[in-house]
Every structure is written in C-alpha cells, then in structure tokens.
Amino acid sequence: MSTATTNAQPNLKWRVVDIAVASVIGVASAFIYWLVAILTYGPWEAMDLLVPGLPGLFNGLWLFAGPLAAIIVRKPGAAIYAEVIAGVLEALMGNMWGGAATFLIALVQGVLAEVAFLAFAYRKWNLPVTILSGALAGVGCWGYSFFTNLQAIDLGGSYGVMYLATTVISGIVFAGVLMWYLYVAIAKTGALDKFASGREVRNA
Amino acid sequence: MEDNASLTFEGWGYRHASRKHFAVRDLTLEIKPGQRVLLLGASGIGKSTILEGAAGLLGSDDANDGASGAGTGSEDSDGGVTEGRILVDGVPVRKARGRVGLVLQDPDAQAVFQRLGDNVAFGPENLNVPREEIWRRVRESLDAVGMKGVQLHRSTMHVSGGQQQRIALAGALAMRPGVLLLDEPTANLDPDGVDQIVDAVGQVLASHHSTMVLVEHRAGPWIDLIDRVVVLGLQSSEQTAARVNGTGREGDIDRSGFRRTVVVADGTPDQIFRDPSIDFAALGIWVPERYRRPEDEIRRIHTPGEPDTDPALGTGETLLSCRDLAIGRGGKAIAEHINLDFSAGQITALVGANGAGKSTLSLTLAGLLEPVAGAVEASPALAAGAQGGSPFAWKSTELASRISYVFQNPEHQFAKGSVLEEVMVAPLRCGMSPQKAESRARELLKRFSLSQYANANPYTLSGGEKRRLTVASALAAAPRVLLLDEPTFGQDRRTWMQIVTLINTLRADGVSIIVVTHDRELVTALGARLVELVPERARGEWQGGGDEDPASVSGASSAASDSSVAATSPAAAVPPAAAVSPTIPASVVRVSEVNARTEPPKASSRSPLLASLNPVHRLIGAFVISIPLLFSLDWVSATVAVAIEAVLLMGIGFTPWRIVRSTWPIWVGAPTSALAVLLYGKSGGDTWWQWGLMHVTDRSAELAVATAVRIVAIGVPAIITVLGIDATDLADAFSQILHLPDRFVYGGLAGLRLFSVLQDDWAALTASRRSRGLGDENKFKAFGPQAFALLVLSVRRSTTLATAMEARGFGGTGPRSHARVSEVHARDKAFIALCLAIPTVALIAAGFAGTFSFMGGA
Hints:
The structure holds two protein chains of two kinds.
Chain A lengths: L15 H35 L14 H9 L4 H16 L5 H21 L7 H21 L10 H31 L7 H7 L2
Chain B lengths: L6 E9 L8 E8 L4 E5 L6 H8 L19 E2 L5 E8 L2 E2 L7 E4 L12 H11 L4 H14 L16 H13 L5 E5 L7 H18 L2 E5 L12 E9 L21 E10 L1 H5 L6 H4 L34 E12 L2 E12 L3 E6 L5 H8 L7 E6 L1 H4 L12 H5 L2 E4 L12 H11 L4 H14 L15 H13 L5 E5 L7 H13 L6 E5 L3 H7 L2 E7 L14 H6 L8 H5 L7 H5 L6 E5 L16 H4 L3 H15 L5 H17 L4 H7 L1 H17 L6 E5 L2 E4 H25 L4 H10 L5 H30 L7 H29 L18 H24 L9
Parallel strand pairs in B: 3-9, 3-10, 7-8, 8-9, 14-18, 14-19, 16-17, 17-18, 19-20
Antiparallel strand pairs in B: 1-2, 1-5, 4-5, 5-6, 10-11, 12-13, 12-15, 21-22
C-alpha cells in the first residue's frame, strides 16, 4: 500500500462529502487533542526536567488532523481546513494554548502540513509524502512555540534544537506514519468508499 | 395549495463505487403527480438508491441527459456509474433543485444546526429564497407538521426523536417540493414518534397534495395514506420470470446474471396485499394488519431444544436483582426505589417512551453505570469468583464472563480487524487459551451463520450480520446475563425473524435475557415479561400503568400509542401484555418527567455586553489584544496588560474567581512554560544555580516571570472574549462579514454539531469496551483502538450528514440567501479599539520603564 500512487488527472473540486468528512476529522481530532492535553500534562514537566525539550515527543499528538484529512480527502487545502476546524473548536471550548490563539497555531501547522502535498501538486499520496507532511507540521508547531510561549529560550540553543528534533520526530511518527496506517485501516472498514483514497485500498 | 410533480425513471441505473454489480439497472417507472406510492422489495434491492437518485444526489451534472438505456454509463466524482435518467416534471432531476424533498431514516443525522428553526430554514437558504419569505416558510412548514408555535431557538438535541423527524420533514417542506421522498422515516422511532410522523405526513398530503414515494418495511401505520404499491424485483438474463426474493447476504443480494430491475407488481394496496402469489415474508415486508393472512401473523415463536418453562418466568433461579435501586446519570436520579429480579432462562422486555431512561436502567443493570442509590446485586452463583456482588465494582474481565451488553449501534462495539478475532476478544481476555477461544468462536460463528465471513472486516458486514456478530461476541465469554439494546431497530422482517429466533435459542443455555425495545411484535414473539418505564403523571403506553382500567387504554389509543398491533389487530380489545402472559403482572417503574417544554435562549457569554457583540469582532478583538503583546517579553508590559484586563473584566461583571475558573488551562500552562524558561532560557547576570543544561540566572528568572505573566495577559482575554460564542452565529459572521465561502463555513459548522454526538459515542465506546473485557487495559494502550473506532464512526456520520445537506440543496454553485443577519454595530468597532488600546498602553509603559525587550531580546 505504501507504493507510490500517482493520479494523472486528480479531481481537485471539493464535494459536499469532502467538506463534511474533512470537518469531522477536524472535530474528532479536536476531541482527541483535548484528551491528550489532559493525559500529558503530568508527564510533560517531568520529562522537561529529565531531558530539556524531550516533551516535544508529545507534540505530534496535536498535529495529525491535517495530514489525515489530506490523505483521505485529497483536495487542495484539506490539511489547512481540518486543522483550522480543530483549532476553532478548541478556541470555542477554551484550552491551555489560549482561546483565539489556538486558531493561529492551527493555521501555521495546517499550512505546513499542506505544503508537503502541494509540493507534489496533489498527485502523490503515499507514505513518504505523509511523513513529510507530519514532519513539516512539527516544524510549524516548534516555530510557533518559540514565537510565543518560549520566546525567552534561544531557538538555536541546545533546548531549541532538542525541542525541534523531538517535535519533528513526533510529527513523523504520529502525524505521518501512524496517520497513513490509520487511513488504510479506516479505508478497510468501507467507510471511505465514496473517496478515491478509500477505493484505492479496497480495490488493491 | 396544490403543488405536485411527476417523477419518471427512464432506463435508470446506478452502480456504487467499488461494487461489481449495479444496485439498480434499467428501471422504468412513471409516477403521476399527486400519487402516493409505497415502494416495496427485498432488502438490498436498491430502494434507497432509487430514492437518492430521485432526490438528485447521485451522478454528475454533466452526465448525459439523453434518454439512453443500459450500457451508456458515465462515472461521477463519487466513483459511481449512472445510466439512463430520472425526470421531475420532464426536467432531469439534478437540474430541478428543490423540486424533490428527501427525509432520511436517522433523525439525528439530518440536523445541521443546533437551533431547530435554523434547520428548517436551511433548504430555502440554499435555494436563495429571500429572508422574509424564508421565515414565513419556516413557520408554515412547522405548522404543517403539527409543531405550530414551537420556539425556533430550541435545541434539536433537546427534542424527542419523533419531533426531530418532524423537523426534518418541515425542512424538506420548506423547499416547496413537488415530490416528497421518505426513506424509512419511522424506523428509528418509538410508537409515539411513528404516529407523529404519519399524522404530520397525512396533514401535508391533505394540504399540499404532493407526490409521495415511501420506502418502509412496516407499512401498517401508513396504509391509509397510500394509493399505489410498487413491488420491485430483479430479472436475470437466463430467466424470464423476475426473481424477487433476497438470498443470503442482505445489502448484496444474489445478483448473478442480474440484468435489470423490474416492477413485478403494481396496483392499489388492496390489489397488491391480497395477491396470493407474492411472498411478503420472503421480501422482508410486514403485511399491514388488515391484509394479514394467518401465516403473516406474528405469534409466539418456538425453536428446537427450548426449555418448557415460561419465558416470562424463567427457571426461577434468580441471577440478578435490584434492591431499592435509584438510577440516573451524573448522580441525579431519574427513577428511584426499583426492585426487580431477573432469573435464568427468563426474557424481560424493558419498554417505555424514548428518553424515559430505559438505557440508563439497562446500563446500570449491566454494571456499566453506577447506581445513584440502592444496589444491583448479583446472586452468589453469578458472582462466584468475582470480587463482591456488585457488577459495577467488578473488573472488566469479571464482568465480561458474567453480564454482557449488546449496544444498539454495532459499531460502538467492534474492536478487531476480523470477524473471528472479534468473537475471540472476550474469551481471550477472560483467560481462555487461544486454541480454545478460537474453537469456541468458530462454533458461535457457525451457529449464527457467519462462518463465511471469519476473515472479513466487521465493519464491512451488512446491518443484520453486524447485529448477529455483536450477539455472538457478547456470548463468547459465556455470560449468564445478556442485555440487548433495541436489537430489532430498523430491521426488515427477515432479519427481524433471524434475531428473534436467535434470542429464543439462548433460553436453552439458561441465560437471563433483558431486551430494551419498542417493538411489540418482538415482545409477543418472545413471550417476554414486561417492565415499563412510565414518566410521572403520564400513563403507560403498554399496560395502562398501575391503577387504570386496562380497557380504557385501548380505548384511548388515539391519544396514547396505538401501535400497529394494538389498534387494528383483532385482539385490540385485549392489551397486548395481557394477551402474552395473562398470569404475569407486568411491572411499572416510575421515572421523572422526560423533557421540559420551554427553553430560554442560550446566552453567548456570561457578560451581556460581550454577548451583544458580533462574534467575528469578538474573535478579532481577541487577536488584537494578543498579537502586539508578543513583540515585547518583559514583566512591565505583561503586568500592565493583566492589570487593565482585570479592571475591565471586573467592570463588566466578572469576579476574579469566575475569571480564573473560565480560564483554568492558562493557569496550568503558564507555570509549565515559565519553568522551561527558568531552566533553559536566555541567561545573563548572576548565576543562581546550574546543573547539566539547566542554568538559572538573573535574566532567565526575569524572563520566566515575564513569560508566565504574559501568557496570562494574552490567554485570559483570548479565552473570555470567545468563550460561549454560538457556532452558528460565528458561521453566519464568517459568511456575511468575512465573506468566506458558504460551502466551507456551513460544512464546517455541520461538523462541529457532531461534536456532542461524538462525545456520546465516546461514552458508549468506553462502556462497550468494559462490557467486553477490554476495560482493564491501561489508558494509553486502550486509547488507540477507541480513538480509531471514534474516527470510523465520525466518518460514517459525516458521510450521512453530507447526503442530508445535499438533499436540502446545499453545495451547489448558485447564490445562497441567509436566513439570519450577522449584525455589526458601533459598539463592535469600539470594542476592537478598546482591545487595541490595552497592548498599546502596556507597550508604551514598558518603553517608559525601559524594560521593552523585542521578542525577548538577544
């Protein structure tokens, strides 16, 4: 399944079902993000004390909506859209990244996740591109942290480098590799039969 | 008002994506204006596909309009293939937006908006109807479905299933359709909800004379509204006579040699239902009472090897009892002082109106919900080997081998990638060896005729098969008590019969069976004991509730429930419960009243001032406060900003305690970031402490304080200004003020509405995992599979939602109107100016104090 898929003539027009599924991926992700925030709060500080920047390994758990929506829906802007929907919902609920600001971080992460698919003109939908997308989302997450909460830490110093490395690794693992196999598993349930992405798995 | 259209199928066919065979092919059918057609056929024959096609939801706009038969199909963007065409008043249906209204089966899946009025307005908006006209139509349509004077701002989550479905019907009517398509509109409703919908449709047909096409397994309540019945069948290449029977797998009936979909019978209800050559049972159809032949009558069923004991009594060995039990969620009791016993080999039916608390009681009995007071007690025989006699206190694996619960939605229950593994879950968790678990699983699959799917993905089975699989998995760990939530909901007669037979065979195993149901025929067929939950001050629908005269119940059937059985069967004079087992007194459990009738509009902020602002301006305000503060990281600007914000927030009525409570995550996040800065931040001045990479200095301490205070300065207003914004109002503002595309804005909004549905799904998934012995795993390990199940559910829900939205004309490229106005006042501009003033003053103060430090400095 991880063989390269190239669509000669991708259909880039959004259907209603594309919008609905991308939205709900955003919504379900927001719900999972919120649970992850509660579960990771305790370990976060402990890990930061153990090895500076280590808790960046959790960051991928807040990055997956974009890559997942993109590989399922396969329309331009799907990654941005899903991540922003997740951000809007979190903003409306209120969370520890600060209400409206969640919207901004979501936008940054979504745009960077999108770049990977854009770079291949929305023609390549495979594991490596998904990994790239997850990694780039990690870079966005890292950069945004240093623009806001962690401004006082030198982003080129050891903490900054370590935090970049852990966040990107986490992005690759959770938002990249895991999302690819998650997509394949969802497709196998037949829930994605209305999508080219789902038919590719089911007909394989 | 007379507004009806003709509906014509000309050699129409459709093949769904990823399917080998056409669902419908070469169908030719003419429905005249004003006709009311009941469409019948075996499960899987393509009735829903026909309705979706007629609603213009299949195929593409640029598909061939020419009258063409089979073999000229074109692929659409869903990957499906269309042949032929469907015309509404002679116009291809995809070009006749709004002429056809479709109501789907699941009421919850059709609500796009939180407020019920907005849902009705949605169709006209998509047709670009002017605003005043929209609200006129909304009121008219709600009148037409019998909801005159209902509060338009009421939440669709807070009304009953019957009302939700009436709102969906009103939503379709508001588009002024010439043709009304109803796809099993009552399959998910309780008897009272069924009556509401049938009455509402009756009123609509009487006033609008619309053309109607109805697909429904249980046509009984509808029969007076129908003037034509069409029975569909398949014709294969080698036979001239059409085959109408389903064989084997529903959803994919035998299509070998399938050539075309044909009308095998067509006529008035009298002609069709009195035709002795049609085998309605094989078609999965419930013959309406008045046409029932002796063989169609539902009677108590018997299966080989069943014990001679009365199923309403069982063997008398009590397995589970309630002692002065109070049930409820979140500690609030909805019913108290419940005393019931459940014995081996007994079948108990928990009945009562939607929302009365049947699920709450059954989940409590199953050890999945904590009793509010009193106790659920397992008998010593049942509890042997477990810790104590209270199922709620048992470990998940102890529970799975004793009491099992089958959820209404099978997809709440799936945990594995194949049918075989699915059945092996509970035995393995309960310590059975893999070989033994597999042989046990294979035996169950054989018994439930699922062996051929052992390696299939559970999600890909048909509805009836999924249901059988969940029962098989629940039985795998050999529990003595089995609870089933609505096992026959939405099933056709064939599947229904399979399920009923299955339940009856379990008696031989000495299992105590408890079914939560609305289905009178199920109760009759099983000979079950009745336990009815009756809201205070209401009368029971099943047995008259205590002191009333039973005769008055059937007499009052127009007001209360009159379900298909009681109202029109020859036995109508006798209440069904008494007819089943006259010696068993049925129990009544009194519960608190279902839902309040009025609901105040929801405020969008605790502050009336904030609530009166435009949502987009509130959002922009939040950004305007935050972003400039990011330019300088110093304690002066941050503290000044916090001080001004505190004064302003208290000025508009927020107490300090309320502020902290609303923004608690900030107070958790600020110290975390501050600690990282303290230890690893930019250094300078005296070193306080150093260890490894940790380096605490004058500078890092100062920056840590500034970071913490600034997070508060940015976060508090960013949360408080947006907290409570109504998602619909925000979407309206995005569309009307920021001019974002409606497709994405309202598509996203529809997704947001699913959030509360997903929360319920999550709770159900958690409970089902506990019931299956998977609940003892550590949280991190359990999280993945459960999150996966949630995602699959949400994808399915959103796919249905997309269909419902398209059925309301959403997603076209034409202009849309807006039923609601997103207003902007002078105070919105003043609000933004004020928001900008806060960081400005703070940064100037920092400048004067000499602490201004651009982005935290070097």
